[in-house]
Prior knowledge:
Elements: E1 2-3, E2 16-23, E3 31-37, E4 43-45, E5 48-49, H1 73-96, E6 101-105, H2 111-116, E7 122-126, H3 130-138, E8 143-144, E9 154-160, H4 169-179, E10 180-191, H5 196-201, E11 215-216, H6 219-229, E12 232-238, H7 242-253, H8 259-277, E13 282-288
Parallel strand pairs: 6-7, 6-9, 7-8, 9-10
Antiparallel strand pairs: 1-5, 2-3, 3-4, 4-11, 10-13, 12-13
Helix pairs in contact: 4-6, 7-8
Bound molecules: zinc ion.
Amino acid sequence: MYERLRNCPICKNTGFQKYLVCKDHSVSNESFTLTKCSECELVFTNPRPNKKSLPEYYQSEDYISHTDKGNNLINLIYKCVRRYTIRKKFKLLRKYSSGKKLLDYGCGTGDFLNYVSRKNLQTFGYEPSKVVQEILKIKKINFVTNLKAGKAQYDIITAWHVIEHVPKPKKAIKLLRKKLTDSGTLFIAVPNIKSFDADYYQENWAGYDVPRHLYHFSRESFGRLIKKTKFKIIDTLPMKFDSYYASLLSEKYVNSKIYFFKALKIRKISNKKAKKTGEFSSLIYVLKK
Length: 289
Ligand SMILES: [Zn+2]
């Protein structure tokens, strides 16, 4: 079942324009419309699966953010890129925070936590999916099942490519604010719809990933959302490897036979252009209270 949003989740405006129609390439093959708020320019999937149906769109062996199975070439590249980016993310955390207690919000199968828990940090994950929670148990990764309960606070909270999946992002970020110590740091990474690769691939850009991505942020719309949560963005940083992975998947969607090489080329152009404009394929926002 689907639900249609009548008001913009950021500014409550009721006027929308059609932005793009994208296909779900990884699970359902259904098409979904992205609409853009005519007031604040937030782009979101509308209509979208309701809360009850949304989990069905995560049920795929290929959906590797959530499962560790699958060994095709793209998955193997993804795993290599993931190993590299996990190290980069940890270095980044240490640049902004010396805190000891970390929460990874939307931790998936816990690869990031697995790495950082070996770095003298007390780590916790949060993942709403029951299937994924079972994987976390097997991997002996600490996780909380109910974030709202209890008064625990964290020095560092990370949300790597999660907020675009959350039905109520403002509410979710406000909850993270409560869970963050006063001197704590929140890191949020989301795809950027104003990147060169988004513009190049249009409806086939992997960063849209409908209907799992409910929101499609630009720096402007993300900034407006954050303003409503009373956080301050203290830095915006690139995720340079993401443009390669996004391009690789996008090339697969358009059935390119030389996707491996073509994606390398698009990544190069995307990152080169972004050096001047700041519009990288994905961005990490560093936030403070
Ligand atoms: Zn709006």
